[in-house]
């Protein structure tokens, strides 16, 4: 998979060199390019923003540098997906992460300030698939941290990035429920014992206990995931 990121803070993305993602990059499974939006400006101050038409607080990113940056990164690839992180986007979910993990080329447009001139999204929509995605109902200063979250959630689903793909199957959200609690040695710690069923060797009883824990935890902290008909994915 090829991932391109366009941002005014390319240094934010140095963390993509570490951990599993760094290994996937070095192994050639994922190829990441980070591009400085200011390299696509032509004035002495490398200006990327201006005041909003219609008035209001804050600054809006001008369309020209975005147009040139996207022309450069997309080149002739009409089979790319442009992802625009924005609190006004569709909520990002594990189901969307699975869809994106099957794609060949993802381009992230990280806006700052009050966003990007909307004509950039409208113009790009005529060339490639565009997804405006939100991490949740709160506001970040820009798209960088959100892009990083999407990249991590997607990249770990790309075959070859995670050593043991079976570990992906039992995670929170993969079956529409939250994960069951996990324990390891010692069996007793600071007066707290591991639930005895987990030491019983009875695999059917363990599976039933874990399922009940998933349902109880989901009902308690995320009842909306259960829906009227029980678990939905
Ligand atoms: Cl994707 N971007 C920004 N700026 N803020 C957010 C967000 C995205 N998701 C939640 N808050």
From TrEMBL:
InterPro entries: Alpha/beta_knot_MTases (IPR029028), tRNA_m1G_MeTrfase_C_sf (IPR023148), tRNA_m1G_MeTrfase_TrmD (IPR002649), tRNA_m1G_MTases_N (IPR029026), tRNA_MeTrfase_TRMD/TRM10 (IPR016009). Signal peptide: none annotated. GO terms for biological process: tRNA N1-guanine methylation. GO terms for cellular component: cytosol. Its EC number is 2.1.1.228. Keywords: Cytoplasm, Methyltransferase, S-adenosyl-L-methionine, Transferase, tRNA processing. Specifically methylates guanosine-37 in various tRNAs. HAMAP family: TrmD. This is tRNA (guanine-N(1)-)-methyltransferase. It comes from Diaminobutyricimonas aerilata. The lineage of its organism: Bacteria, Bacillati, Actinomycetota, Actinomycetes, Micrococcales.
């Amino acid at each position: 998979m090829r991932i391109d990121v366009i941002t005014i803070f390319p240094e934010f993305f140095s963390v993509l060199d570490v951990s599993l993602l760094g290994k996937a990059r070095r192994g050639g499974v994922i190829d990441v390019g980070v591009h400085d939006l200011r390299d696509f400006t032509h004035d002495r101050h490398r200006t990327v923003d201006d005041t909003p038409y219609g008035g209001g607080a804050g600054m809006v990113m001008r369309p020209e540098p975005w147009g040139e940056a996207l022309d450069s990164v997309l080149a002739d690839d009409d089979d790319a997906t442009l992802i625009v992180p924005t609190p006004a986007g569709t909520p990002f979910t594990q189901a969307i992460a699975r869809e994106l993990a099957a794609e060949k080329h993802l381009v992230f447009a990280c806006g700052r300030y009050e966003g990007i001139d909307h004509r950039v999204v409208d113009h790009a929509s005529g060339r490639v698939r565009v997804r405006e995605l939100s991490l949740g109902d709160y506001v970040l200063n820009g798209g960088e941290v959100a892009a990083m979250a999407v990249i991590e959630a997607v990249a770990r689903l790309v075959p070859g990035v995670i050593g043991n793909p079976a570990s992906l199957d039992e995670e929170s959200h993969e079956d529409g429920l939250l994960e069951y609690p996990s324990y390891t040695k010692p069996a007793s710690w600071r007066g707290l014992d591991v639930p005895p069923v987990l030491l019983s060797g009875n695999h059917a009883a363990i599976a039933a206990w874990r399922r009940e824990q998933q349902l109880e935890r989901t009902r308690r902290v995320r009842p909306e995931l259960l829906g009227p008909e029980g678990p939905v994915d």
